[in-house]
Amino acid sequence: MYIKKKNDTVFRVQQPSELLSFLMERMQTTRTSVKQLLSHRRVQVNGACQTRHDTPLKTGDEVVVVSDKGNTRLTHPKLKTVYEDDYLIVVEKKEGLLTIPSKPGSRETTAFSILKAYVQRQNKRNGIYVVHRLDRETSGLLVFAKSPELQEYMRTYWKQLVTEREYIAVAEGIITDKEGTIRSWFTEDKRNAVVYSSPVDDGGDLAVTHYRVVKTFAPVAHTEDGQSVPEKPLSLVSLHLDTGRTNQIRVHLASKGHPVVGDRKYGHGNTYSPADRLCLHARVLEFIHPATEQKMRFESPLPKVFNQLFRQK
Known about the structure:
Blueprint: E1 9-12, E2 17-18, H1 19-27, H2 31-39, E3 43-45, E4 48-49, E5 56-57, E6 62-65, E7 79-84, E8 88-93, H3 111-122, E9 129-130, E10 139-145, H4 148-156, H5 158-161, E11 162-172, E12 179-189, E13 194-198, E14 205-217, E15 220-222, E16 228-230, E17 234-241, H6 248-255, E18 280-288, E19 295-299, H7 304-309
Parallel strand pairs: 10-18
Antiparallel strand pairs: 1-6, 2-5, 3-4, 3-6, 7-8, 8-10, 9-10, 11-17, 11-18, 12-13, 12-14, 14-17, 15-16, 18-19
């Protein structure tokens, strides 16, 4: 839950309303000003950050407008703060950024190094601790702990704390089964950092992925002379994981013959990527806050390029 600060403005909802109209009335300000507060993630409803102007409010809800006085903001093109309190930080990572260094002693910029510098600007004794990871080319939501004790607790009870975790992928081809579950056993080759999947138990680690096809589309390109040329069909897929194995979604979709668009590692040598990136995004992260025991839900909008791939050109 968000820890209120002295300069924050706190409102209590007296009757059902929508967030935009509520703040316009209570703050005596314009629609544009409220939308700026929302886009800058300065509005909390019952302790959770809200960015949607049409968020419904019910009687008794607490709305907090977070003060920007004295705040040291995180500003980085590859990393954005979604939520922060005295215990943890939730961030939105862009593709191309590692969660942690790939090698000891590496000076490469990572989500970890950016956040470490950020919290130490507030206090040099502050630390940041990795709870889970996303692949370099995967974008979306990550949570970091602010103490080693909380890190250990969240890692130990991760499956019990996380109530929902959804990924969205753009996969090659039309997946005919609209929903299903992929179960296989993973073995990682440490020499080339590649994960192999077996449909039968070969002594590897069990990996379970549930998927649902959101929509499919066969885009059409147009040549210079105006002729229509069919491009490769695509499937937009929602995925939920029972397990958290390395490269799990990428390996499982590739095993079905529908690798993630832009996956040069598991795409069978296919470098097809109309989006010029790996099309995998951690969209939803919902968990029980380990300190307050409140359910926290965060949603990250789909990268624009995902939707662009499914529009007629």
